[in-house]
Specification:
By secondary structure, this protein is α/β, with parallel strands linked by helices. Helix content is 27%, strand content 32%. It has eight helices and 16 strands. A hairpin with a 7-residue loop joins strand 3 and strand 4 (45-53). It is globular and about 50 Å long.
Length: 273
C-alpha cells in the first residue's frame, strides 16, 4: 500500500498527487514512469513521474480524471492509500547532447517536460519552454516553468493567456525570429505531437516525442504499447517511452489509442453511479 501524502487540484479534473514510494523515489530519473493500481481489482494505469523527492521518499504524479480508474483515484483523500505502485519503468530522458533545447508541452503533457526544465536549469543549460492548453485554467505549473526556463512562452486556444493559437504557432514564431534550435522535446495529445513533428521536419530540427500508448504490464510482455517507429515495431514501455518523432507512425498510433474509448467511457459512467 502507498500513502497519498498530499493531493492538490491544479486544473478542472486534474489533480497532483504526492505518493509515498521510497524505492521508486530512490532510483527514478526524469522521463520515467510508474504503473499504479488504485485497488486490488483495479486496472494498471501508467503515469509519468513529474517530480520526486529522494529524501522524503515520494514521487509526484499528475492525473487527469478521464476513465474508471482515474475517477476512482480522484475520490481518495490525503492519508488514504492506493494498492500498489511499480517503477521506475521506461528509459530516462537524455538531452545532454543538445545545447539549445525547446520543451513543448500540451495540457497534462506539461508534467512530462517540467522535470527536464528543472534538471537543465540546475545544470546551467536552461531550455526554452512552450506550454499550451485550451484555456488558461488548464495550464500546469506556469510559475514553475517560468522559474526553471530560459524563456517561457504560452499558447491558449482561446487567447486567455499568452498567444492565441497552438504550441505550433509559438514554435513557428521562434523559428521565424532566428532562434537556433538543436532539439525539440514535445509531449501532449497525439495530434499535437504529430503537428509539431510535421513543423520541425521541414526545418530538419531533431524532435523527440513521448508516446503515451495503451499499456498493461510495463515490461514488454503484453505488446499493448507497441508503436511503429521507422518501420519497426517498438514497445513504449521498454524501448521508450521516447522516440524520434519524425520516425513515428502517428496515424497508426492515433488509431490504436482510440480502440477502447467507448468502453472506457462506459466504465467511467458505471463508476460515477
Amino acid at each position: 500500500m502507498n500513502k497519498l501524502v498530499s493531493i492538490k487540484d491544479v486544473a478542472p479534473r486534474v489533480k497532483q498527487y504526492e505518493v509515498e514510494a521510497k524505492d521508486v523515489a530512490r532510483h527514478c530519473k526524469p522521463g520515467q514512469f510508474v504503473i499504479i493500481r488504485v485497488d486490488a481489482e483495479g486496472e494498471r494505469v501508467p503515469l509519468t513521474i513529474c517530480d520526486f523527492d529522494r529524501a522524503a521518499g515520494t514521487v509526484t504524479l499528475l492525473v487527469q480524471d478521464v476513465g474508471y480508474s482515474t475517477h476512482a483515484l480522484s475520490k481518495l483523500k490525503e492519508g488514504e492509500c492506493i494498492h500498489d505502485i511499480v517503477g521506475p519503468l521506461g528509459n530516462a530522458t537524455d538531452l545532454s547532447a543538445y545545447d539549445n533545447v525547446v520543451l513543448v508541452g500540451g495540457g497534462i503533457g506539461c508534467a512530462v517536460i517540467y522535470p527536464q526544465a528543472k534538471v537543465r536549469m540546475a545544470e546551467g543549460r536552461p531550455c526554452t519552454s512552450i506550454i499550451g492548453a485550451r484555456t488558461k485554467e488548464l495550464l500546469f505549473a506556469v510559475d514553475e516553468f517560468r522559474k526553471d526556463s530560459k524563456e517561457l512562452l504560452i499558447a491558449t486556444d482561446d487567447g486567455s493567456l499568452g498567444v492565441k493559437g497552438f504550441v505550433t504557432t509559438v514554435l513557428q514564431q521562434l523559428i521565424d525570429r532566428g532562434d537556433k534550435i538543436d532539439c525539440v522535446f514535445v509531449v501532449g495529445p497525439m495530434i499535437m505531437m504529430r503537428n509539431v513533428c510535421e513543423l520541425t521536419r521541414g526545418y530538419g530540427i531533431h524532435t523527440i516525442v513521448s508516446m503515451n500508448s495503451i499499456m498493461v504490464d510495463g515490461t514488454g510482455m503484453c505488446g499493448g504499447c507497441r508503436v511503429t517507429v521507422g518501420g519497426e515495431t517498438k514497445y513504449a514501455c521498454v524501448d521508450g517511452p521516447e522516440f524520434d518523432g519524425h520516425l513515428v507512425d502517428f496515424a497508426e498510433a492515433m488509431n490504436r489509442s482510440g480502440f477502447y474509448r467507448e468502453h472506457e467511457q462506459a466504465c467511467r459512467l458505471r463508476g460515477e453511479r
